[in-house]
Amino acid sequence: MEKKRIGIFVKPQEDAQQKAGELVRTFGERVVIIDSRQGADARLPDDLICVLVLGGDGTFLSAARVIGDRDIPLLGTKFGEVGFLAIILEEHLYEALEQVFKGAYIIHQRARLNIRLERGNAILADVDVLNDAVINKSALSRLASCAVYLDNIYLTTFRADGLIVATPTGSTAYSLAAGGPVVHPAVPSIILTPICPFTLTNRPLLIPDTTSIEIRLEDSPEDIILTLDGQEGFEMDADDRIFITTSPRAVKVIAFEEQSYFKVLKTRLHWSGGRS
């Protein structure tokens, strides 16, 4: 089937909803609204060129979950507070869509992580994430002790408020706030960032994306939660094990110039842009 329409995945917020209505009035049958309220169960037409995301990074992550393993790229528009996943600003939206209809765009691949949570012989979760998996304790709980194994070799036990395992895309999300590095999406890597570690020698770690990670909880943990892309959470038990590998299912993201990531980065982080 010929791909000829753009899907619009809209944040449930008044300004984004209004903009979606304007796009429908302008482009008519060339665009179609996707009901974001259905979450991962939202239905996608078969003739989509791409999915336009009207919302912040959280909406973009929701759209990525809806895409799943379909060969449909995403195009982010800044409607949130920070918007590291947004390539275009609202004022350039109409021009960008015309370029998409003409095929005048670039596709970049964004790696995802596959997160598998096992309890005994049961698999409680088997999910791909674009940003991160976060092991967090509740506000009143004691430190979380996360024993980390890399390719079946014990690395260390992070004693901290939690542990973030992030993709390069997720390096500018929670991991950055916790002191992790900014990593370009094209760098094949996985980031381990402890949250407020008890031991100062527990530092963020960058490892190859070919590494298999296993995480076990130690010291009879209580009130520990595994959160996936901020979209869903699982209460963990002492015997739970988390297995993390790079997913074979990357997310395709639309851009209009090769180095657009650096422009987004310095704009969102309010960098000066270099010497005069």
Shape, per Cα inertia axes:
elongated
Low-pLDDT stretches are none
**Helical element count?**
5
Number of domains: 2
Question: How do the helices and strands follow one another from N- to C-terminus?
Answer: EHEEHEHEEEEEEEHEEEEEEEH
Subunit organisation of the chains = single chain
Q: Which structural category fits the helices and strands?
A: alpha+beta
Beta strand %: 35-45%
Distance between the termini: 51 Å
* Rg, nearest Å: 20 Å
What is the CATH topology assignment of the largest domain?
Answer: Tumour Suppressor Smad4
Largest sheet: 6 strands, antiparallel
Query: Please, what is the average pLDDT?
Result: 90
| Helix share, percent | 10-25%
Q: In order across it, which strands form the biggest sheet?
A: 7-6-17-14-9-10
User: What is the CATH class of the largest domain?
Assistant: Mainly Beta
Task: Tell me what the structure shows.
There is one protein chain. A hairpin with a 3-residue loop joins strand 15 and strand 16 (232-235). This protein folds into 2 domains: 5-110 and 251-268, Rossmann fold, CATH 3.40.50.10330; 113-246, Sandwich (Tumour Suppressor Smad4), CATH 2.60.200.30. It is elongated, with a radius of gyration of 20 Å. It is an alpha+beta fold. The protein is built from 5 helices and 18 strands. It has a 6-stranded antiparallel sheet, with no helix packed on it. A 6-stranded antiparallel sheet has the order 13-12-11-8-15-16, with no helix packed on it.
